[in-house]
Specification:
The chain is an alpha/beta fold. The chain is 42% helix and 12% strand. It is built from 15 helices and eight strands. Strands 1-2-3-4-5-6-7-8 form an eight-stranded parallel beta barrel, surrounded by five helices. Strand 2, helix 2 and strand 3 form a beta-alpha-beta unit. Helix 1 packs across helix 11. The protein is globular. The N and C termini lie far apart (51 Å).
Length: 360
């Protein structure tokens, strides 16, 4: 059974962009609960690491069903390793597979992954076709062992399946790509045509080249050009725009003006997980109640991960929350002082004590 949810989403599609070090399971849960975006992506996981049994990378694939439809994002350079990674994504019950061909980080692109694949269109296509083949093989009943998934990863997969009541139903998962306009120059037309020749189910296009990183303004005129090419394809495929989307109304405006099916919101969600909702934003006490819930969810999720074998201390487990707490503390009198206090907190209990005067 084909399970291409992309074709069933109501337009405009408004999704949470995948962001390394930000869109972990706790943040995605809070965004899903208070924003309810159309679709959510995980942080990416390196397929080369998975091929060598890197269990420590798997917490990026922790999730709650409230996040659905949820897509597991992967990156790397070796088609065979992508094949195995797709089986992991499928066995964990995700709704789709996304290939990162857009990360500009030197640590990723410098090794040929992420946006580095734009310079290697043949390899990019081989990877996309391999992922589609893996999705088909998994749907047809091939097992993770037959696919060559590293044995060290199997306990995590089984544990997560047990938490969800058993293995997910076999279905053909859609394969999508998140990418950029080019490497060191804009090549929108030729690059999009290359990707379409390998038949992804969705393309998300960030409106900058790798060289531009996140500087200047995103080229939404180029995203509009890509949308025309995509909508002329001979098979069903959706396209989302990404880059400098500042609010829900801005997302809707950019979608309408540029002919895309939807847009992803990234940095504008920092400290504002409700950004996808049409409801009025929360007042300050409610905002801090949500921040506190975010802390509680973070500790809850990663306590489960610790039980699965994590060696992190409680302080290390809580550390990623601090940037989120900093983002919640913006735009009001006393924000700087409160932010400094929260940076000293190492647990939800400490955060609750600091926020207590603000919760009334």
């Amino acid at each position: 059974m084909h399970s291409n949810f992309w074709q069933n989403l109501a337009n405009p599609i408004l999704g949470l962009s995948p962001m390394d070090g930000v869109t972990d399971a706790a943040f995605r849960f809070i965004v899903a609960k208070y924003g309810q975006p159309s679709v959510i992506f995980t942080e990416f996981i390196n397929v080369e690491g998975l091929a060598h049994g890197a269990v420590k990378t798997l917490p990026a694939f922790l999730y709650d069903p409230i996040e659905r439809p949820l897509i597991g994002q992967i990156y790397g350079i070796t088609p065979d390793n992508f094949y195995q990674a797709c089986f992991i994504v499928a066995e964990l019950g995700f709704d789709g597979i996304d290939i990162n061909m857009g990360c500009p980080s030197k640590a990723v692109s410098g090794h040929g992954g992420g946006a580095g694949l734009i310079k290697k269109p043949k390899l990019a296509c081989d990877i996309l076709k391999t992922c589609r083949r893996a999705a088909a093989d998994w749907a047809a009943g091939k097992t993770v062992r037959e696919a060559g998934v590293h044995q060290d990863l199997l306990p995590f997969i089984r544990q997560q399946q047990k938490l969800r009541g058993g293995p997910p139903p076999r279905r053909l998962l859609p394969v999508s790509v998140k990418t950029r306009l080019g490497y060191d120059k804009i090549i929108t037309g030729s690059w999009i045509e290359t990707l379409l020749s390998c038949e992804p189910d969705n393309i998300t296009l960030h409106g900058r080249t790798l060289r531009e990183m996140y500087t200047g303004e995103a080229h939404w005129d180029e995203i509009a050009k890509a949308a025309e090419i995509v909508h002329a394809a001979k098979y069903p495929v959706t396209i989302l725009g990404n880059g400098d989307v500042k609010s829900l109304s801005d997302a809707r405006r950019k979608i309408a003006q540029n002919g895309v099916d939807g847009a992803l919101i990234g940095r504008a969600s920092f400290g504002e997980p409700w950004i996808f909702s049409d409801a009025p934003p929360p007042d300050l006490p409610e905002k801090f109640r949500i921040a506190l819930e975010h802390c509680q969810k973070h500790e809850e999720i990663f306590r489960i991960n610790k039980a699965a074998g994590s060696t992190l201390t409680p302080t290390q487990i809580f550390a990623p929350m601090k940037k989120h707490l900093g983002w919640y503390c913006r735009g009001f009198a006393g924000a700087k002082e409160l932010r400094m206090q929260l940076m000293s907190a190492d647990s939800t209990a400490e955060v609750k004590k600091i926020l207590h005067p603000w919760l009334e």
